[in-house]
Batch of 3 targets.
Target 1
Amino acid sequence: MDKTNMEMELKELSNRKDRARLGGGKEKIERQHSSGFYTARERIDKLVDPESFLELGMLGHSDQDGSEEKSAGDGVIIGLAKINGRPIVVQAADKTVFAGTEGKVYFRKSQAAHNFALKRGFPFLNLMEGGGLRMPDGMGSDGISQVLFPNELLTHHREVPMITAILGDSFGGPTWTAVSSDFVAQRKGTSMAVAGPRMLEVATGESVSNEELGGWEIHAHHTGQVDHFAENEEDVLDSLKQFLDFMPQNGGEEPPFKETKDDPFRSLDELVDLVPTRRQRAYDMKKVIEHIADDHHFFELKATYGTALITVLTRVNGRTVGVIANQPMKFAGAAGDKECEKATDFIVMCDSYNIPLIFLHDTPGFRVSSEAEKMKMPTKIMVWNQALAQSTVPKISIVIRKSIGAAYGNMCGPTMGADFVVAWPTAEINFTGPEVGINVVYGRELAQSEQPETERAELLKSWSFDSSPYKAAGKYMLDDIIDPRETRKFLSRTLDYACGRNGSISERRLANWPTGY
């Protein structure tokens, strides 16, 4: 090939790539901007380290006859990049190409990206929006037979962290990706659902808005399918980076250590006044976690779902840990069905990615009622326990103020697999409170009594079982009673010992558990 022909070929290549970079064209890019959204390429640029993105499949397009020139990338951009120097795989749906719907080449590219992430052990990040399966590609018995649920999504086994952002209205495929992920962040004002309102109205006659169908408040308060919400795209993308910062590259590695100048033995003097000794008084458990954490920093997941339970990622002496804590500010710290799902989900994720678990108890038990039974509370309590029993990461359990009944077990009390179980001296531990026990056993007699209050007082004296932690510690059912001010020191030391043999590497028994309960 002579020089002139080579120049012509290089010009042709350059022109093709220039056209591909424009996606659906300047007009659709402007429409995306005027609607207040970034393009797929802009999102990638904002997420990854400068000049680190290596695109694959740029010249792909729809394989439908006549669509080749108007389907740049077939609606998805994939490639390799780095975030804070760490290699990742990224895919971003391109709304400017057929509204971000999925064709056969889109599927092929997405599958290739996913497979590379698994092959080389890189986190897989998804920047999603779009209308799901593209009608022409999926129509007919031959069409739908080729584009059912991708097997790599169904058999992911938590081999690498899968992290998803919902950045525009997402139906079908983007939703499947999100609910299969370890972490999902959604921009407020967007929707995530199985199908869009138009299809819903045609199929069922139900007329709803995008927001009513799958807006952020639906997922924040009702479904728990999204972990974090933000007002704008920058904050959504930043949350993906924050989550990734706590994650290992893959299930075979420990999360990265992060050097800190925060003294691991720092005395938590503030906790003496922060946590009331009277169990009826509320306080914010997040402040306790803040004092324990390195540099007072933590990252909360599902903050608005199952609010009587807190799940956060943080660090203690440089090591990533997951904290499960009761929140006395909500329902006195008593867990319901949503809290059970939230705890199970968090235990499974932490165990799959070698993140030690810390439990901070302050709960009067579970929220029991006829409505709770309709929500399958017995099953949800036991699924939480099953996850706990099968988890093999280091676990440390601290009774802060009270831990009553079965909830004492779910919060990793004695015999539930913890490496260490301790309590503060003010802790109260029992099957149930004496008042409740008396009402259950003697309720009818007291109702018929002429002096019910006097009899109740006498019964309370005889039912004053020792709920203090010293009785359990005396029989070595607790490892120790610790000074609250030494909580951070205790955790720093015990984490070091619990991770002494294989670091925090787990047996990954929960890696194949489902991503919803």
Target 2
Amino acid sequence: MLLKRPITAFMLILATLIFGTIALSELSVNLLPEVDSPTLMVRTDWSGAAPREIEQRINEPMEAVLSTVKGLENVHGFARQGQSIISLRFKWGQNMDLSFLNVREKLDQIRFSLPEQADRPQLVQNTASDEPIAVLGITSLNESNPDFNTRLNLKRWTEQVLSRRLEQADGIAQTVMVGAVEPEVQIRFRPEALNLYGVSLSEVESLVSQANLFTATGELREGWYRYSLKIQSRIQSIEDVKDVPLKTLGTGRVLKLSDVAEVRLDEADPTSFSLVDDHEVLSVLVKKEYGSNTVEAYDTLLPLLEELRSQNTNIGITVLEENASFIRNAINNLLQTLLYGALLAFIILFLFLDNWRTPFTIGVAIPVSIFLTFFVMFISDIQLNIVSLSGLTLGIGLLVDNAIIVLENINRHRSGTDSIFEAADLGTREIALAVTASTLTTISVFLPLIFLGGFEGAFFRDQAWTLSISLLASLGVALMILPVLITQFQKKGEEKSAMFGFNRFFDRMRDRYEQSLQWALRRKALFLGVMSVLLVAAIYLFMLVHKSVLPETEPQQLRYQVRLPGNTSLYATQESAESLINRLSSVKQEGQSIRVLGGYTDQTNLSNLSDEGLNKFTMSIPVDGYDMADRVREEMEDYFQQQPGWTAQPLAVQNAMDVLPSASQPPVLFRLVDEDRKQSERLAGRLQEKLRSAGLDIALAKQYEQELDTYQLRFRTQNLLQLGIDEREVIQYLESLTRGSWITDWNRQDENVPIRLVGYDRQIYEPENIVLNLNDRKVPLTRLASIERTSEPEQLERVNQTPVLSYMGDIGFTDWWWYGNDVRRALTDFARETGTDVKMGGAVMGIASLLSDMGLLLLISVVIIYIILSVQFESLRHPLIILAAVPFAWVGSVFILWITGISLNALSFMGILILTGIAVNDSILKVDFMRRYFADTGDLHQAITQAGLHRFRPVVMTSLTTIFGLIPMLLPFGDGYAFRQSLALALMGGMVTSTLLTLYLVPIIFQWVEGKKIKN
């Protein structure tokens, strides 16, 4: 035992503080836990293909094969113009590395059954590292409106210098460019010249491709040596492309490509753009390595940028957006609240305890427990984030509870022993088992989180471990370190003194409590009736309290995804974005810039990919508080009322907070499952009538309502035979005339530049105006094919290999809470009448599932507590008395959330969960004293009275240390305070009612239960 080795105890304290400090500096820092959704995404590009064709020829066969992968829970496919996206969601806990290999194997099996024109399917794993830690803006300082050559040089410098330097740095994995100009060699052929010299497009493609040949053909051997033989490409420059020989003319002259076509280096059709205010910039998304520290990765980035700025004075490098500062500030603020909370808890100790030395002996428990927790977090690879650190902050008051109980028991024995050493030894041994059981009871409330699967388990695991470690550390300090400190710093026979007269004031409060308790015992029915009314009111308010996944923060930025009509080109999308920027420039925050990313910005990010397109852009508008945010929203509404066909969808402000799998979805989705989507569309109106007939005023709006106009060509076979024209020749001619026909890639230094065959005149807007110049004839396309203009959805959706048509319902979580069962019954009746099944989805389902799982966790915790208490008390009745007060403790949490307007979210629910353990602890002390006193004396009334007198001080003391330790978390300063407030308010509100109910409700229930037992 350490009582005989005080120097050892002091060295343990010193070692804990030293190693804890080192561990704190080395802990991985992030805003929220890295919750990696078990999701894989398969993307297949097929340029120019219509959504229906992609669905039939790519999605359907691919989904059939991929659905056989082990552990797969859901297959969600999208088909849109030029692209197929299939999202594979696996069960939580699935080995995603193994699943990745299994999916890759299936893709290799099906690859050759896909259309030849389609690209190879790309498999992307969704991780927390998909979101960029910083967005850089690259501009030319010499030109305000750079031309093609300047933009191309910026792109090459970014790709060859900036990206390579960054990706070599520790913690940085990848950079993605948005708005980069892509060069290509365009061979603009002249049909008249081709016909004049009798050269076909196929011959041009073949000869250019052969000129770019680079291959190893074998080796030469000479005695002991051998030499490789390779053929080098003849294309080293644009001039080499122009000089590609096509044929030898009758005069002996060699016909070159430049004789029949114009060859030049030009900009390829862009797929993305980036704007800062109304200026076009090259944006670079910087992504960190998986599991690396966000703050450290960003700190590594900054000196590299400074070095590059000094070396390239003509290039501007600006940090447009970064998350590290917010994370650093949020964590630092939370660490400050941890320190302030510990100081306030120490002040409460100083007021309550008898002399000036005692608070310091107990106060040691706080820093030692915290720093020991930091050390265990480091060796256990637990992140330092808002959730884990908030758990530690919430436990500040709990860290001294064990020390207070041990101290009081030691003081109780001091008068009957010869030395402080003997009192410390006897008092600690006597209370050790009870304190250990009490600590394990508290831990049992949230320890099940460690074993909980799904999102909740991944999100709260760090917090559960942190709280468990800190409480076990405080238990160790109370049982081993505290007795040593008492023997070293307290003196035998030291007189008690009242700190600032506080104890005299507290004694008067205890006397008044005794009087009020007697009054309540005489009016049990009235008191229980009032408590029941409060409980019913809390249940009603629970229905009304706003519910969300995470707390809502004061807006500093608004993000919108803007969708234009489906056929809008990227150039028109960019012009529209510039127009909207000019409209909003007067209402945004001064000194800040509006940022826009449009087109296909990040093809590796699953959360963004399914919502990107050439007709879409994402806008980030800086604001300062709620008033400015409301003005921006009003301006947006006014602008979009003037733009028919435009839609704007609000997005999460910070993707790092958007951790729930369904958080990015609309509130409620009704998915009509039917092979015939036209039938589903006709039934949508009937579904809405069905909902309204059930008393549900829900308006339905199609989720993907935009449509694309396409031209469908059907060849006139007889005319083709009469003219001697091959179908493949027509297809090749049209491909070159419209989007350009890819021939080969020219390896230019460190980049591959496509060489593309394109029509000389690309200004064709109607297919009826196309005239093909083939075989010395000018043939209108209308003679070779019938042309029909049709309309089809921009995006087709499939869920679990079945076509669906999704409709958004304007119903919030509160309405769903009240009327969810009515909606389900209406959908069941609708399916029975029409034969069309309707599946539910959306963010509301995610929140409901989250609250349901958390409620189940709460129930499991209560059952575990009951089991522990039954073993501790050797009784099935007394644990029920303790647990009866727990629901009433939740009353304060619900009331304070309703009064303050703060939502019931994952973090506030965690506060309520921790409150359950604290309320149980206070009740245990009360019931244990009453039970033992009643067993010794047989006087029930006296047992309750004495328990009130003796336990009033520790109950109020532990409650005040917890409440005062949480006060700094309520202060609205610094980044991330909304997270702190949600946790602290839920716990503080419940602590107030928990303390009152422990002091009054538990004695009343105990008297009622034991009184009935006596009568029986």
Target 3
Amino acid sequence: MPPPPPAPIAEVRVTDQFSGDRLTIGGIDTSSSWLWQGQGATRPTRLWLPLDLLVGQMGFQRQADVGEEFLDWYGFQRPLSGLQQRTIGDEVALDALPWLNAMGVQVNRAKSTLRVDLPKPHLKKLRQGKGSSANRLVLDLSGPALVQRQGDDLLLQVKVTPLQESQLRRLGLKTRRDRSGLKLLGQSSRLSTLTLKDPWRVVLDGITPAKSSTKQRQSQAFQIALLAPEMQDLIKKGLVLDQRVVQVGVKPIRLYRAGVQHNSSDLLLRPLAPSHAQPGLRYLNQLAQPANALVAVNGGFFNRVRQLPLGAVRLNNEWLSGPILNRGAIGWKRSGPLMFGRLQLIQEMTVVGRRRWPLGMLNSGYVQRGLSRYTRAWGPTYRALSGEEQALILSEGRVDAVYDQASLVRGVPLPLKGDLIVARGGAALPAQIGDEVTINMRSSNPLGELPQVMGGGPLLLQMGRVVLNGRQEGFSPGFLAVSAPRTVVAQDSERIWLLAVKGANGSDPTLIETSLALSQLGLRDALNLDGGGSTTMLIANTTVMTGRGITPRVQNGLGLISDQSKVLAN
């Protein structure tokens, strides 16, 4: 996800600023950027941590209430809209210090490593819900605890007794105890968590038995996925699943990849996106399972804080989200080779008897001054995305209604057949109630006319040549230079490839290093998708790779789905 520009920081001198890329959270090592502001090594003035890290490795929750979204941890709650944000590497970060101080978390730094510690509380009692809430489990604790998602597993940093562990197993949960706490195997993306105080509690919703066998749990996730019967059958029919290390200069780069023949009749490439409403994030398996996707990777960029798409997604000839900034994209038909290129939508609104008005964006979380267009593919309701908006509704070529800022903040319904035209940043509405209006739209590249489109960027390879030009696609120099895990869609003369890429020895690749690694594999065309903490590969409903070791939530994905599947999105 391309980050917003850093927010200004007040009352802290630049010389009192330290950063690193390693963390130890409750004794668990992880790779993530952090920024410490203030003197000394134990008491920062501010401590900036990635939002995804707080949610995935500590147990923070994002909660919505009457149109406002809050960040909550054990009852310490703040509205996200009021929190200052900045970028660290390729992540959106918040000052986590108020929460950490409130819970008694200890922090200290040494060189590039930050240590975060919270004493492990005792598990006092287990309580399972009854009736319709039987899938809810309440853990009463003696104090706050860290809740961490590690691949497919959920780690609760609590002290438990053998009897309590037996109780969990009787509920159908597979567990493992070690000095880090209690691990619930296979439950990372199956369980939602809630942290509460007075008394201290962790609430687990959606408890179901883990399905993996003992033999599978003892194998690496990638090997587990390959052993799945459905994957073995597809491998016999030409699906390629492998992992390999490619050397680019002195840097070894590990690539996980899945390849399907262009003319495959067994697996089809499809966007994985929610069809009922675009705002919101989901775990990749929540997008993949309803679509019957046997292989999936995360897709294009999105705004992590607002949870909105930032690029092209077109599913079965319908634009769920339009392209932005002339960024790279792929387009394709039912099967066959992909078309790679840079893409824009050119939209015009013509009011009868008046001049034409350009419409900047379609169903997009990319907010700019001017006019933008939203259809029912955005969802049943539109709510204001900026502080200065007005809008009009078009139905059957005529303006039906006009809305002011207050109405848009509350939310207005989007018509089943029609358009909402939103004016931002002081732009005037170009029509009045009763005016006749026409909208014309065309694509800057023929790939935008194809039934399936997925955007990302930047383009890495075309016709076997490195074509990396981030500035042409609106990416900042800092984004282009960062080292991070990568998600890529590519093709050669025989196959379409979905790839997840990361450093084999801890140092992740830059975009140019990724391009050179793909060239070594003989790939002809390649597009970078969202990377960093969003990078995820799923095979046979098993997470085989994540960018930061944390199972992330994403806005959309790309999947290889069974040709027999009729349900393409949730």
